[in-house]
Amino acid sequence: MIIGICGSPRKQATEYVLEQALATLREKGYETTLWSVHGKWVDYCTHCDYCLTNKECVVQDDLQELYALLTGAQGIIFASPVYNGGVSAQTKAVMDRMRAVVAADKNFFKGKVGMGIVTGGDRNGGQEFALMQIHTFFIINGMIPVGGGFFGANLGATFWSKDTLDGVKLDEEGFRSLKKTTKRFAEYIERYGVKDGGKQS
Ligand SMILES: Cc1cc2nc3c(=O)[nH]c(=O)nc-3n(C[C@H](O)[C@H](O)[C@H](O)COP(=O)(O)O)c2cc1C
After folding, report:
1. What per-residue confidence (pLDDT) applies to 157?
2. Ligand 1 test: best mutation among 17, 87, 163, most atoms within 8 Å of CB?
């Protein structure tokens, strides 16, 4: 199972390009689920440390369904709009709240493969920094981060939306970076990823 997490509060460019990646992965035979923050209640982590003692998050919001989905995931895609040169606050809140699943199982993310997709309104609006935030999350949590390789997708998939869904659909270079990154993501899941979502570790 591959889980695509969309950190955009809108059903616009970011969700569209994430769905394109998941469609490619379904063609390769993977089951996929797109989980978006759009229309959901996702609180911030408040560092209350309830999870360290109780092995679950004290906040019973919509993130509980994502925790359950991620348990069996071989691969995770974080797709975020670029807000102020980095990932959206919603994306970051999802990342921070993962403290709870790691408190319950320190190997929760170990061996899962991760890729990032970022969408900025500007051509160079902070996409690479946002990707590095996503990869940093992967590295900290023992995941296997992948980019799409040189000549176009070095750190992952980067899009220029000009702030609209129609704009992102015209970004040929962005779709090239998505294709290269998605291809490598699938290769890494086959070669190096955990086969059962990591439950053997
Ligand atoms: C609060 C806010 C901050 C933004 N900051 C940036 C930015 O730093 N760089 C950039 O390229 N675009 C920025 N944008 C534009 C969005 O990244 C762009 O519209 C993107 O397509 C939004 O994703 P969505 O279509 O999925 O909503 C910002 C948008 C908002 C609402």
Report:
1. 98
2. 163
